[in-house]
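Prompt: May I have another protein with tokenized structure?
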Amino acid sequence: MKRLIATAFLVGTLGFLANPKPADAQGGKLKRCLQEAVYSCDEDFQGNDAESVAIRGWCYMIRGVICRVF
């Protein structure tokens, strides 16, 4: 009986907690920065050979981290 009361109390307490707000992954400063990073990498490293594609991939990662940090 004590376990049932404790469980009911716990569930009731959790109901009073504020609902977490979901992250806004589609808007804001980070999205614009990432779009600019992709565009600038595409402009800086054009070409379809394997080396250009690999360099462009690294460019996306590096500039994406820079966007996230700043």
In short: The chain is about 75% helix and 0% strand. The first helix runs from residue 2 to 16. The mean pLDDT is 85.
